Amino acid sequence: MQGDLKRDQGRRTGFTQHEWGLVIAIVLVAMALRPGIVSMGPVLPAIIDAFQLSHATASLMTAIPDLLMGALALPTPWLVRRFGVNRVLMLALGLLSVSIAVRAGAGSSLTLITATVGVGAGIAVAGAMFAGIVKASFSNRAALMIGIYATALSLGSTLSAGLTGWILQSTGWRVAIGVWAALGVVALLAWWRVIPKSVATQEVSGTEGTSATRLPLHTPVAWLIALFFACVNFLFYSILTWTAAMYQEAGMPAAETGGVLASFTFCFMLANPVVGMLSKRLDRRGWLVACSLLSTIGLAGMATPGAWPWLWVPLTAFGLGGAFTLAMTLPLDHTHTPDAANRWNAFVLTIGYLIAATGPFIMGLMHDHSGHFAGGFQLLAGVSALMLVLATLLKPPR
After folding, report:
1. Which CATH number applies to 16-206+216-391?
2. What is the DSSP string of 130-188?
3. Domain residues of the chain, as ranges?
4. Residues 186-225: pLDDT tens digits?
5. Which of 339, 347, 348, 349 is nearest to 133 (CA)?
């Protein structure tokens, strides 16, 4: 009788009771993976003043996590096979929470940057594991689950973008960035609760013999996916890092610039499940082109500082949000097992995030030389145009 009831619930909701527990845990973990980066955007001007940093140096607060998300993507599948998905994920979440708290109490720029390394490492290892988890647990609903995962990432981004500016104005930058350590603790506890119930979390630890360490280095479509993913994240983290600072320079209050940044993360979040649900065919080029075009138009508008931020920023975000969901889904389209998905995902993340890490730094350097952000956002519009070209080349698997 109880088994029949669970099957009936699964037919009604699309997930079994155990799957729902895993979905909720995935959502809570994903929500914890972006505030450590996003919360730095609204507080960067205050941190620059507190530690007398250049814009290029300040960009390391987001460039370092980007860099580590690329550098640590390759060893993460080995860590998962060696120690198991649960141990590795919980250790990563613990490191993330502790590092956010230490960074908030930093008394020097060295401590600030060192703690940021810990933040980036926790985010990098945890984030690199989810392709395999989705492939093992929800292989027939990969696009939907990637959409849910991306939506949860964006929800965490939206909360931190929208609230950090208000917290900054009332309590200062230390509390404004330190409070987000709590999300990591909640995520750790949520994952700990699903471990005994979810067989799927154990399956990701399996190996495939000698092929387990083979990367798709000689597969042209893997390189195209990686470059497309790189463009998406080059734009995403550059916008997260410098949008609030650009509008603060134009005279907008910190809390309002936080609202503009929150509109970016909210529309990014809105696009994740919408595009994930609508993109049902393996040939995803139509949606890839549409999302890239929206992003390019929006960034062309943002390149004129102060011109309709409440239009151009959300438009850019919706295009990038859809593109991000599709970019995360493409490696799953081309693989058949959890370990293969992890290896393709590790390759894409490595190439993508190593390139993306240069975005915030380049924009900071351009500001140090020119004294404004207009040139930097013109560069972003050009990168989005390149993304549009790549979208037309991403053919589906045979």
Report:
1. 1.20.1250.20
2. HHHHHHHH-GGGHHHHHHHHHHHHHHHHHHHHHHHHHHHHHH-HHHHHHTTHHHHHHHH
3. 16-206+216-391
4. 999 998 887 755 544 555 544 443 344 577 888 899 999 9
5. 339
